[in-house]
């Protein structure tokens, strides 16, 4: 047994090492989606592949990294993992993500004993998928690019040029793709080195016992929190806009959550089957999305460790949209992003005092690419965007923050886009009236407008536009996400997820959704409404309509006239 003080010192040493992995990655990556957006998943794991320390980025990546390492162990065996080795895996059903999110990991040895793993997953820009930038209408895995099933990038510390050459010759952007993967390798080496230093300082046995204690403590915290939750069973249904092949046909997500004294069961039975397009997700990603919500309502104030999820169980049907099997297409993995709030929608029925209304419900990603006339080179950059969060029993939803699936992420600054690409950002700000009215208002989304100054492609990965962000306890629903092409012209067109070939002068607007409201709008404090009016979050027209107000010319509430109006309308 390791004493508690030593365990805590080691725990913080591992967390510091994970943060250093992230800093190394961001300093060396070629891709703005990595170093600006922080679209990564980083972890340090024990010898079984269970995470003991991570750095926040895309939340669903961390648990997906666990699954990827464990599949690699089953595939290769631990004896095939030698000191100095580094592996890459992007076979979706094992790696728990699509082909452009390769997991790079390195076994950690100390005195020839395997004591853990360092992992780093990022989004790379091209691995010979059928379309540049992103695939939105693949019908089987063969269209989704180069597949690497736990292949050695480094063998006992020596770069494996065979694998790097395969990657290089299977990418439209070889310099960037190889550069990003090499940055992952460098990040993993950092994790290996720092973990070995802890083993040298405290002893390998002490370190591995501390890892075990960290996960046991994480499990105890989750079980204590689970005991305090309401018990029962609740079911919710929500939808992904479409699968990219059966255009306009909603894809059903059904989730039943059961809480007992011993466990939480998240059952996806009833979700769509036989989905043709690439919104299917591997089981590992569904489990990771489920873990995110379980963590958020049990132990949100402590770092992620695998032990946190021992009291949680996920049930799926093979071949469904939440449990893809070969050769089902998986490239557009938005189902895994949207799944979390389906779980929350179910939980809100049993614990409305603890669960917020829906957020805008999507990461609303933009990818632009083309040829830059200033340099003559190919360019590709992108950004995820903030959404409004749902109102809660105690406060308004946050305005314009990153979706709950990516709590460690950011968006790409205007200056980066305009410096690196032929894009001109015409406007960027809050989206007025997008938050649902309520006693506690839903947060508002944002709107960002891209004008192309040269021909190019604008890929919009937005799959929550056809259904409204749901509300709680009588609040109003939020305004859904929207993609608007050439707004204010005779060519204006409203879209969702789409692959757009644009000419110079055309404009693409990414308008993100607002959160649902919480509680009866007529119970909202007048001072809060007046503050919303001053800040421009709510227009005078919407305030009069949704809150049944009479406003003065100074945009303050006429209390007596409002009381008369409400009495007449009721």
Describe the structure.
- By secondary structure, this protein is an alpha+beta fold.
- It contains 13 helices and 20 strands.
- The strands form 4 sheets. It has a 7-stranded antiparallel β-sheet, sandwiched between helices.
- Strand 4 and strand 5 form a beta hairpin.
- Helix 1 (4-28) packs across helix 7 (204-227) and helix 6 packs across helix 7.
What structural category arises from helix and sheet content?
Answer: alpha+beta
User: Number of DSSP strands?
Assistant: 20
Calculate Rg over CA atoms: 24 Å
Our estimate of the beta-strand percent is 15-25%
Task: Give the uncertain stretches in residue-range form.
Answer: none
Strand order of the largest sheet: 2-1-5-4-3-6-7
Measure the end-to-end span: 68 Å
How many helical stretches? 13
Number of separate domains: 3
């Amino acid at each position: 047994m390791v004493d508690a003080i030593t365990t805590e010192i080691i725990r913080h040493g591992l967390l510091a090492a994970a943060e250093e992995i992230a800093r190394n990655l961001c300093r060396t990556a070629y891709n703005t989606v990595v170093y600006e957006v922080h679209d990564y998943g980083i972890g340090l794991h024990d010898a079984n592949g269970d995470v003991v320390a991570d750095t926040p980025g895309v939340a669903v990546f961390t648990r997906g990294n666990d699954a990827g390492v464990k599949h690699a162990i089953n595939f290769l065996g631990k004896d095939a993992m030698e000191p100095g080795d580094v592996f890459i895996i992007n076979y979706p059903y094992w790696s728990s993500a699509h082909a452009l999110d390769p997991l790079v990991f390195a076994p950690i040895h100390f005195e020839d004993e395997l004591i853990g793993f360092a992992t780093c997953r990022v989004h790379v820009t091209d691995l010979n998928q059928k379309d540049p930038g992103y695939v939105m209408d693949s019908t089987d895995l063969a269209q989704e690019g180069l597949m690497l099933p736990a292949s050695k990038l480094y063998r006992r510390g020596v770069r494996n040029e065979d694998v790097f050459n395969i990657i290089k010759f299977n990418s439209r952007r070889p310099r960037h793709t190889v550069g990003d993967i090499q940055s992952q390798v460098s990040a993993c080496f950092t994790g290996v080195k720092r973990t070995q230093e802890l083993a040298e300082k405290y002893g390998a046995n002490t370190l591995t016992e501390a890892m075990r204690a960290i996960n046991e403590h994480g499990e105890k915290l989750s079980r204590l929190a689970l005991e305090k939750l309401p018990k029962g069973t609740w079911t919710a249904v929500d939808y992904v806009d479409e699968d990219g092949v059966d255009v306009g046909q909603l894809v059903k997500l059904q989730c039943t959550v059961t809480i007992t004294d011993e466990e939480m069961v998240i059952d996806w039975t009833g979700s769509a089957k036989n989905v043709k397009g690439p919104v299917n997700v591997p089981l590992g990603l569904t489990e990771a999305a489920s873990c995110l919500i379980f963590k958020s309502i049990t132990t949100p104030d402590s770092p992620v460790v695998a032990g946190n999820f021992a009291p949680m169980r996920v049930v799926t049907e093979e071949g469904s949209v939440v449990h893809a099997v070969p050769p089902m297409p998986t490239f557009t993995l938005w189902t895994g992003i949207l799944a979390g709030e389906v779980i929350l929608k179910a939980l809100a029925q049993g614990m409305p005092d603890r669960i917020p209304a829906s957020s805008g419900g999507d990461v609303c990603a933009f990818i632009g690419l083309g040829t830059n006339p200033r340099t003559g080179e190919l360019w590709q950059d992108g950004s995820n965007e903030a959404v409004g969060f749902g109102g809660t029993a105690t406060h308004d939803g946050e305005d314009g923050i990153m979706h709950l699936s990516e709590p460690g992420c950011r968006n790409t600054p205007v200056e980066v886009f305009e410096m690196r690409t032929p894009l001109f950002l015409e406007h960027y700000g809050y989206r007025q009236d997008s938050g649902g009215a309520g006693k506690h208002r839903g947060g508002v989304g944002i709107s960002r407008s891209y004008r192309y100054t040269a021909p190019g492609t604008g890929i919009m990965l937005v799959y929550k536009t056809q259904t409204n962000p749901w509300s709680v306890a009588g609040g109003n629903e939020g305004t859904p996400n929207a993609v608007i092409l050439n707004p204010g012209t005779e060519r204006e067109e409203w879209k969702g997820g789409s692959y757009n070939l644009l000419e110079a002068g055309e404009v693409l607007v990414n308008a993100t959704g607002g959160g649902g409201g919480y509680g009866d709008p007529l119970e909202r404090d007048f001072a809060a409404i007046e503050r919303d009016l001053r800040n421009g979050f709510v227009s005078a027209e919407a305030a009069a309509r949704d809150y049944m107000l009479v406003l003065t010319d100074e945009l303050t509430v006429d209390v007596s006239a409002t009381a008369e109006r409400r009495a007449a309308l009721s």
